[in-house]
Design goal:
This protein is α/β, with parallel strands linked by helices and 261 residues long. It folds into 2 domains: 7-73 and 178-257, Rossmann fold (3-Layer(aba) Sandwich); 87-174, 2-Layer Sandwich (Threonyl-tRNA Synthetase, Chain A, domain 2). Helix content is 36%, strand content 20%. It is built from 10 helices and 11 strands. It has helices at 29-37, 50-59, 87-97, 101-104, 115-122, 126-132, 147-158, 179-190, 205-210, 243-257; strands spanning 7-11, 41-44, 67-69, 74-76, 107-109, 138-143, 163-166, 171-174, 194-199, 213-218, 236-242. Helix 1 runs parallel beside helix 10 (243-257) and helix 5 (115-122) crosses helix 6 (126-132). The protein is globular. Bound molecules: magnesium ion. InterPro entries: HAD-like_sf, HAD-SF-IIB-MPGP, HAD_sf. Keywords: Hydrolase, Magnesium, Metal-binding.
């Protein structure tokens, strides 16, 4: 794409660009417009699937940029609405089903249940659960067995190159890749002069620490992130306002500081 791009912004969605409660981003409109005026890139980086991110990316007018989906296990390329087919998810499911039944049955993945099952597991609405179920790169699920059974299960998966990440609620299986890995790839492609990353949760930290400026967006619904690498030196900024309002202020301040107008 564009050579000599000044700035690429990498942003988490829930609790960062998107309000935790209302799911709205309107409070960030002024900063989004300012970014668009200087032709900055804005990369959405979320645990959501491609179909979940795609509609929002269009609404935000960011369709000419890729989006980081499924927590960095994959990318939704620019200018496409959906990932046509990846062999990764199918391959994950095949590997899972090759594991002896007594262990296999202790993992209940999104692919093992109906949309109603995903509603039950996540608390999402039916429509949102239907989109969350359309996976391309990773398989979240619940572990129903003991810790030692889990170790045995994971050992078998590792033998096939499958990586597992234990989150608060879900054990997520993939072939690797996280938000910062994808961020690095995008930076290598576009060589921006500056990068800014914004997030609110532990899975955003590596991205925030890797950017020229990392912005911790306040989220009163979760414990604050501990002091981050670079924070004492001013590379990490914390917003006072939560969600898109904090996002808006932080971006406008940084555009001033970097003299990007
Ligand atoms: Mg978040």
């Amino acid at each position: 794409m564009t050579a000599n791009i000044d700035l690429i912004v990498f942003t988490d969605l829930d609790g960062t660009l998107i309000d935790h409660d209302t799911y709205k981003w309107g409070a960030a409109q002024q900063a989004l417009t300012a970014l668009s005026d200087i032709s900055a890139g804005v990369i959405l980086a979320s645990s959501k699937t491609a179909p979940e991110v795609s509609a929002l990316r269009t609404e935000l007018g960011l369709g000419s940029w890729p989006a980081i989906v499924e927590n960095g296990a994959g990318l939704l390329p620019a200018h496409v609405d959906a990932i046509e087919s990846t062999t990764q998810y199918g391959e994950l499911r095949r590997i899972l089903d090759g594991i002896p039944t007594e262990l296999r049955d202790l993992f209940r993945g999104f692919g093992d249940v109906t949309i109603d099952g995903v509603v039950e597991m996540t608390g999402l609405s039916y429509d949102a659960a239907a989109l969350a179920k359309q996976r391309a790169f990773s398989e979240p699920g619940q572990w129903l067995g003991t810790d030692s059974q889990k170790s045995e299960f994971l050992e078998r998966l590792t033998a096939h190159g499958v990586v597992a990440q234990q989150g608060g609620r879900f054990l997520t299986l993939s072939f690797g890749g996280n938000k910062v890995d994808q961020m690095r790839r995008i930076i290598e492609t576009h060589h921006p002069k500056y990068t800014v990353a914004l997030g609110d949760a532990p899975n955003d930290v590596a991205m925030l620490e890797h950017a020229t400026f990392g912005v911790v967006v306040a989220n009163p619904h979760r414990p604050p992130l501990p002091p981050l690498q670079g924070e004492a030196g001013g590379q990490i900024i914390r917003t006072t306002a939560a969600g898109p309002l904090g996002w808006n202020t932080a971006i406008l301040d940084l555009l001033d500081r970097l003299e990007l107008h």
